[in-house]
Amino acid sequence: MNIPPLPGHPHLHYAQGQLQLEGVRLADLAARHGTPLYVYSRAAMLDALAAYQRGFKGRKARICYAMKANSSLAILQLFAQAGCGFDIVSGGELERVLAAGGDPSTVVFSGVGKTRGEMRQALKAGIGCFNVESEAELEVLSSVAQALGLRAPVSIRVNPNVDAKTHPYISTGLKGNKFGIAHERVLATYRRAASLPGLHVKGIDCHIGSQITEATPYLDAMDRVLDLVQAIEAAGIAIEHIDFGGGLGIDYQGDAPPAADALWAQLLARLDARGQGDRMLMIEPGRSLVGNAGVCLTEVLYLKPGEQKNFCIVDAAMNDLPRPMMYEAFHGIVPLAQQRAGETQVYDVVGPICESGDWLGRERTLAVQPGDLLAVLSAGAYCSAMGSTYNTRARPAEILVDGSAAHLIRERESVSDIFRSERLVPAKI
Ligand SMILES: *Cc1c(COP(=O)(O)O)cnc(C)c1O
Known about the structure:
Elements: E1 12-15, E2 18-21, E3 24-25, H1 26-33, E4 37-41, H2 42-55, E5 61-66, H3 73-81, E6 85-88, H4 91-99, E7 107-109, H5 116-125, E8 129-132, H6 135-147, E9 152-159, E10 181-182, H7 186-195, E11 199-205, H8 216-234, E12 241-243, H9 260-273, E13 280-283, H10 287-290, E14 294-304, E15 311-314, H11 323-327, E16 333-335, E17 345-350, E18 359-366, E19 373-376, E20 397-402, E21 405-410, H12 415-418
Parallel strand pairs: 4-20, 5-6, 5-13, 6-7, 7-8, 8-9, 9-10, 9-11, 11-12, 12-13, 15-17
Antiparallel strand pairs: 1-2, 2-3, 4-14, 14-15, 14-19, 16-19, 17-18, 20-21
The structure holds pyridoxal-5'-phosphate (PLP).
Pyridoxal-5'-phosphate binds next to α10.
């Protein structure tokens, strides 16, 4: 019997009792490539992108994938081919874009701590825009560009100070965090930028946070940004584009974020009502493009019953999938073989690492035996990309599923890969 797709995961479903992503049986991938294993659905990523593309139909717009969410080369290649630009936060990410065949002129460079070296690298590559986050950075960028005989295209990241009390998920658009230029300093900063010889003012930018599940904070931020655009242009400085950042949430556990096209219908109506509908628009979505396109497969190693808790010890750990440890984040965990009725227990699902923070899920009702395979859901964003090799655990392989085809897009790392760059000291004589 086939049951419908799992909530939030339109391409993940059970067929004949076996979990499949698109047309590929996940247990077959685990048998072939081992665990832990990341598996992504190409269709899920393209569907998520299509919702934004529908939302912007007929508008001047660019979707810059915030690649820190998942920067595997094949995923960048997919988004480049689908017409995306990229939001990068380091020189390393720029190298990845170029290696994946991305067009540097579609790249915007965000982040509060760009080094002079990264600025030079990005200027030489010809990126589309620097999203500048402080007045000090403006001065440095201008001098770096001047030394190269160039003018750096800039947009200034403004901090719209959207009220966190009513919208608790917003964490980067408030006074008191390190991002962006405070509202009251924005005009002076634009005046300074326009006067610097190494800069060319292109746009304005904001990014108010992540995993946002309501439209209201976006609408509030849009109003504030449009007020600023009015004031900046009244001062004689042209703003070619408005970049509204990323941040749209996904369904991890019954979260109900607006669909990207519905959200943008609302935002564009607001923009039109303010007579700004024909502006060049940019956005920087990350999580909402890839988060629910991926799963992490893991094998149950041991069951450890206890007086207070039962532990289900699996072969994936916080180094592979750090969100639960870092944010106490919830990820759904489901068996690859459909559950046998009546054998369930409540488990904390934990990894092998020597830290109590090494857990993937708490108090999960599962029917499992050692050797069973589980899928950790919503693992496409900020999972593999945040992974480490803590405990000298090699990073998992990654697979991109496309219909009934499965492409290996990252080989499993070897332990010798991990310590290749390390050196012993010369022996004492
Ligand atoms: C992280 C980040 C994004 C993407 O955020 P998501 O929540 O993944 O959509 C976009 N812009 C900037 C500046 C970021 O730092």
